[in-house]
Design goal:
459 residues, TATA-Binding Protein, alpha/beta, 6-stranded antiparallel beta sheet, 7-stranded mixed beta sheet
Length: 459
């Protein structure tokens, strides 16, 4: 038996030909089919060099287990999510490493209804089956069904159902696809908008999928990558800009001044949009930066529910509370009417609708929020012992705190500021977020002080 170290907390990721390769992907595809006794499984892949080959390996494993493969080709993670629900498949797999380094690849897997896998009853069993290769014999080999055209058509119809096309006004929008998988799907959406005479002007940047990633791995959350989009927004005098990560399940925003709009402000705007559509609805958010979001939800008579960070936890909380929308500051946005899954395309469509209906530019929609609820942005530390580092911070601040919460890591609330310190679910990092009520200087001072207490190297 070979231990498969590519299995992580939520998905499967590894360095190519080190802890993930074609044979491993084959075994995981076959194990997934066997575990779910699947009739059919959706398979898609991103723009990385090995992704189409890995998708073929997964498909072969699925077929050998006796299941049919619903092939959707080059696609985003969210296209796989929707195809599973649309075609009532038993599971779905997309080959992607999202924003990981170029020498990595991986797999994201969901089960029927586009639900995330349970760690104990799904992912761990698939891992053991893959390691032991204890595969059952299928009397009839599965078939490959090419559903790429039908899947994309159904997906586009669904994402466009979130907005009123007749309400959209002329806007100029910069779109940075990062040479990932987003370009072709975005073009298909844009074509539908154009056919409906929607007056949007798109300026495309790094648009074509390119497995060499000549402009760097698409991870717009990193400050060093902001300029690629911000510069074009300012030069083109665009209304705003958007940038996607590699599998486009995350969408990042830049206002008309080229300023990066932090995740909590986008979550707040989307929460407000949905509370206008459905008064009194429930909104789920992660615990990292919360005051702006909670203030908006409270002001609109909604219900704010805090959930542990991570797609499995957010989706579980949303299903439990029938939440209409859930958001994480890392730019994952989840929608009840999209099978409770995250989408990178729905958010920008909703912001286009909001700007069109309100007549207010994105920069002006968030300006007061930036001032009222400034935040540090996420600071990441490499530390030898995460638990000990968190205990040191707790010891230094506990007596001064008004309240304490351990929903996800350590959250401490003070008179006019708040911190959240948590270990990463996917990387060996300690993540710090600080927010305040109107004092950016206080944030700078506390980040510096906590960094000294943690003592780790800033990532």
């Amino acid at each position: 038996m070979r231990n498969l170290s590519c299995f992580k907390a939520y998905d499967i990721r590894g360095e190519i030909n080190v802890n993930i390769d074609e044979s491993i992907v084959y075994r995981i595809g076959r194990a997934t089919s066997q575990h779910f006794a699947a009739r059919s499984i959706v398979v898609g892949f991103d723009a990385r060099k090995t992704s189409s080959t890995y998708a073929s390996a997964a498909a072969k494993g699925i077929q050998d287990a006796g299941s049919n493969v619903i092939n959707i080709g080059l696609s985003g993670t969210e296209e796989m999510y929707w195809a599973v629900s649309e075609f009532k498949a038993c599971a779905g797999i997309v080959i992607t490493a999202s924003h990981n380094p170029i020498n990595y690849n991986g797999m994201k897997i969901v089960k029927s209804g586009s639900q995330p896998l349970c760690q104990e009853t799904d992912l761990n069993i698939i891992k053991r089956l893959s390691e032991n290769e204890n595969f059952s014999f299928a009397k009839i080999r599965g078939k490959i069904i090419d559903s790429s055209v039908e899947a994309r058509s159904a997906y586009i119809k669904r994402v466009l159902s979130f907005i009123d096309l007749n309400a959209l006004k002329p806007l100029k929008i910069v779109v940075n696809s990062g040479n990932g998988a987003a370009g072709p799907t975005f073009d298909a959406i844009a074509q539908k908008l154009s056919a409906a005479n929607v007056p949007l002007d798109f300026i495309r940047v790094n648009h074509c999928p390119d497995h060499t990633f000549p402009n760097g791995i698409p991870n717009p959350l990193l400050p060093k990558n902001h300029l690629a989009t911000a510069r074009v927004v300012k030069e083109a005098r665009a209304d705003f800009g958007i940038a996607f990560d590699g599998d486009f399940d995350r969408c990042f925003f830049f206002d008309g001044n080229g300023r990066f709009v932090k995740g909590e402000f986008i979550v707040g705007l989307l929460a407000e949009i949905f509370l206008q559509k459905e008064p009194g609805a429930t909104i789920v958010h992660d615990p990292r930066v919360v005051w702006n979001i909670q203030n908006i939800v409270d002001s609109k008579d909604g219900v704010a529910i805090q959930s542990k960070t991570g797609h499995a936890f957010i989706k579980q909380s949303m299903r439990k509370h029938r939440a209409i929308y859930g958001g994480e500051i890392s730019a994952h946005h989840y929608f009840r009417d999209f099978a409770y899954c995250d989408s990178g395309m729905i958010p920008w469509l909703l912001i286009v609708e909001l700007v069109s209906k309100s007549g207010i530019q994105l920069a002006n929609l968030v300006e007061k929020r930036f001032i009222s609820f400034p935040s540090s942005g996420e600071t990441n530390f490499y530390v030898k012992n995460v638990g000990e580092a968190i205990e040191r911070v707790l010891a230094a601040y506990q007596t001064k705190a008004i309240s304490f919460d351990n929903t996800d890591g350590l959250s401490l609330v003070f008179t006019n500021w708040r911190l959240n310190l948590r270990s990463s679910n996917t990387e060996p990092l300690l993540r710090l977020n600080i927010e305040s009520r109107g004092s950016a200087k206080l944030i700078q001072a506390e980040v510096a002080n906590i960094a000294r207490i943690i003592g780790g190297k800033i990532a």
